[in-house]
Amino acid sequence: MKLFSGNSNTADILRRLSRNKLAMTGLAISFILLLVALFAPLLAPYDPYKMDFSKMLLKPCREHLLGCDDLGRDVLSRIIYGTRYSLGLAVIVVIFSTTVGTFFGTIAGYFGGKADTLIMRCLDILQCIPHLLLSVAISVILGTGFLNTVIALSIASAMGAARVMRGSVMSILHMEYFEACDALNCSKFRIIRRHVLPNSFAPMIIRSTQGMANAILQASTLSFIGLGILPPTPEWGAMLSGSRNYIRDYPHVVIFPGLAIMITVFALSVLGDGIRDASDPKLKD
Question: What are the pLDDT tens digits along the chain (285 aa)?
Fold first, then answer.
């Protein structure tokens, strides 16, 4: 699983990934969602915040392809802009949690001893609490909003990242090039920077792709229960929460944001699974 060990190995991983039709489908959908997020102002037919009470709960029609919500706002425009918030939040959460997890996981795995014991026992205590419940508790303490939601999800996700990094570091500590570095009296910082991180980071890349799907799902959950990103921000979970009272008579205001969450989580999940399978040396053909 040395994604950075050489061009030939990377090319082999990409070749096997390209043969996975489900993973390539996920990659294509993810790329389309990225373009939607980047060019939302150009793609959205209406202002996602503009209210028109004459079109309250308007069903899908030629003028409003996905209808309007309870305040007369265009659902399609809000979903398009919601892609920015959902993907942006997921990316920030993954970057932050991966950075923190890599730092503590590397220290625990490389130095071992008391540092490893202290870090892992703290993680054991925190991981006794389910991730979503921990995120809810942190959100209650910090309050709602984009930044606080990022912090809540990042703390919960960083614990798993630290464990993955620790295991990856420990699996390569006894390889020959580490013994050579010790024989040359290389500094610990140089060994970590030049050898530990590049050769143990592949599992973190795989986890990051899958972590984005979890971050979007959990962010939507927090927003749905009123502890994440709140209206009028066009975030998918907040859209579901604000429209749930109309699900029986006007299902379009709930179905389309729900489909956006489902498709995004599906795409990122199958892409992460495909990268994991392509990077697994046991599955090489």
Answer: 444 444 456 677 778 888 888 889 999 999 999 999 999 999 999 999 989 888 988 899 889 999 999 889 999 999 999 999 889 899 999 999 888 988 888 888 878 788 888 888 888 888 888 888 888 888 889 888 888 899 989 888 888 888 888 888 887 777 666 666 666 666 666 666 666 777 777 777 778 887 888 899 889 889 888 888 888 888 898 899 888 888 888 999 999 999 999 999 999 988 888 888 777 655 555
Kindly report the CATH number assigned to the domain that includes residue 172. 1.10.3720.10
Q: Give the residue among 232, 95, 211, 220 at the shortest CA–CA distance from 151.
A: 95
Alpha-carbon distance 36 to 49, whole Å? 18
pTM of the model: 0.83
SS3 of residue 17 by DSSP:
helix
- Domain of 238, in residue numbers: 21-34+74-279
